[in-house]
Amino acid sequence: MNRNTIFGGAYALAFFSFLFGPLIIMALTAFNSSRFPRVAPWECFTTNWFGELFGNARLMEGLMNSVIIGLGVVALAVPIGLAGALALSELPSKLRSTLYTVLILPILIPGVVLGISTIVLWGQISRGIGAGFLYNGYFLTIVGQITFVSAYAMLVFIARLQRFDATQTEAALDLGATPGQAFRKILLPFMAPAIGSAAFITLLASFENYNTTVFTVLSESTFTTALASKVRHGTDPSLSALAVIIITLTLIGALTNEAFQRRKEAEAGGRASRSPLYANPITRALTHPGVVFAILVAVIGGITYAGSQYDSSQCEAAILQEKLDRQEALRAEQRARIEAQEAEQGVTVPKPDSAFGGAFGGVGTSAPAAPAPKVENNSAFGGAFGGIAPPQTEE
Amino acid sequence: MPDTIPDRSVLLDHVTIRFGTYTAVDNANLKINSGEFFSFLGPSGCGKTTMLRCISGFSEPTEGRVLIGGKDMAGVGPNKRPTALIFQHLALFPLMTVAENIAFPLEVRGVSKKERRKKADELLEMIALPGIGDKKPGELSGGQKQRVAIARALAVEPDILLLDEPLSALDLKLRQHMRTELRAIQKQVGVTFIYITHDQGEALTMSDRVAVMSRGVIEQVGEPDRIYNRPRSAFVASFVGENNALQGVIKGQSGETAALETPMGTFEARVGGGRKYKAGDEALLFVRPEQLIPGATENAFQATLARQEFEGATNHVFAKAGENELRISMVNAGLAGSLPGQGESLSLGFAPMNGTILPVGHMASET
User: Fold this and answer.
1) Under a CB-based contact definition with an 8 Å cutoff, are residues B152 and B85 in contact?
2) Topology (CATH) of B235-366
3) Which among A35, A87, B71, B166 has most CB atoms closer than 10 A?
4) pTM of this prediction?
């Protein structure tokens, strides 16, 4: 191995750690029973955070809202984006650049501005025409998000349209198709992959949007806004559990898509370009995207079921006990230290609340058989913050 | 086929097409007969594609009328006209199979799937490509795509088939083969073919009649041999085939022939286009390279052989005569014959009927 290979390998390792490190760490924390998302110290393997996630009513309600809003945005933003892209492709070049700027502008405007202006505008409209039902979180969020999400869709369509041969439409017309038929039978099938990716992108953009939605959603909440407010009150590993779910779904989608693309490529190319997998009927069936998808779903389903059956309460109880013991030991140690100090200083600084005074002075290092301090059961951070626990004031 | 032969003629009645201030087609006035193989020949930018789009309905004439089968086509869209257009790059639909491509015109007319397939198979039979119906256009060779495009256009059962340089993307051998094939298909279906090309070889070999266009103007319409042998303008003479041009001054005209005084001497030649000249008029004399004969006595002059280009059957000889360089095509007589060497003096001449005197006008090299 020469120096270049070592350097290259190290660089690649650093690069991929940078990319995937956070994801891996986060995924691991979802299975640690610690109440704070962390990997070390590892306490117990648990699947309870998934249950906790699904038990969070606010998050689940937000998820439902996000799905409704996301579908609404996709249903409107994709046709608007397609119409915009088609208009741009038909216009003379001077008008085109002007319209392009206008249509792209919402992407450049800060989301906060879009959010506020949406509620101001629709507030005026709904009051003006007396249509109060328009002023609700779902509708406002959909129209607010569409202003910029449809521009994303349009960019996807423009890219695809640039590869469209306009004479195809002319040929269809010449062969007797009406403009509508030419659109449905020629242009739409050509645009189908772009429509798929535009729908996906707009759904994601709608789903993950925060800064516009936080205004337009009014008293409702979407998944993202609910998540944000949850994080504000302190985070816990149920969010990591959510990350695991999202990563898993993405992986399933990506692998199925890859299988689909490879198969399409193999079928488009000649026999020579195909991998030997296609010769054998069994491996051929196994590489079918549908089969790949089914296998992945079955595996994930199995793991999920196994996980749901897993009971970590015993381990957790043991950990809790361990923590309590440790906490107690630390307290006793501290108390001993305080008493030793007092003993040293004699009666000049009497401690009114310490009945044991300097009785145990000088034996601070050994664990004294002190009465058990009052233990609060919900103090999960006890172990973690034990070293900086405030002076004890009990008794 | 219906009992009566349908009228498949196209009449261009004083058609002018302008884009803003630019005139793409200037006052085209022309009748294309039913069942004719008609070509528009011209360099790129001469307005021939504009003309084709106007006949197929993608654009409307600014002035004048287009009549197909005697009916005025004003306001009739391309999908309503009895025409089918074969695009320069064919415009086959890549996402459909060959059979779906061919049956597309039937699909949009609501013909059942079974019948569509039957018709597609019939047409594939006709273009001698049976059994490729389930392939995608991307899997076909250039010549196959070509024939599929023709089959698709014929599925419309058009009265007029318009072809926009469809052979330009093919290699030479295939192009020559497709010429014969196109001509055979045209004879078989009896449809009027209107063919657009900048390749004079294609226009001359396939067509019943040719219209030569330049700068939006139809310069001459006629049978291929008349276009070649009796050009009516300097542009036609210089664009169709090779030609030698000599500038001179008319000394006098007597009926069909006139005498032209040039720096190389005075020549007797036929007057092109039945025009009348008076002494002192500026004019151009055109003589074909293959009609300049070494040792001929009529219109004889001396020249010096400057260089030669050997091209198998013919030998292109370039001879200097004063300021002019003349091109002479000599048939390769093989080892039995002999050719003059570099720098040798040549005595050349041509029959008066083979020279054409035309008024000074723009030449092919100037477009």
Assistant:
1) no
2) OB fold (Dihydrolipoamide Acetyltransferase, E2P) (2.40.50)
3) B166
4) 0.71
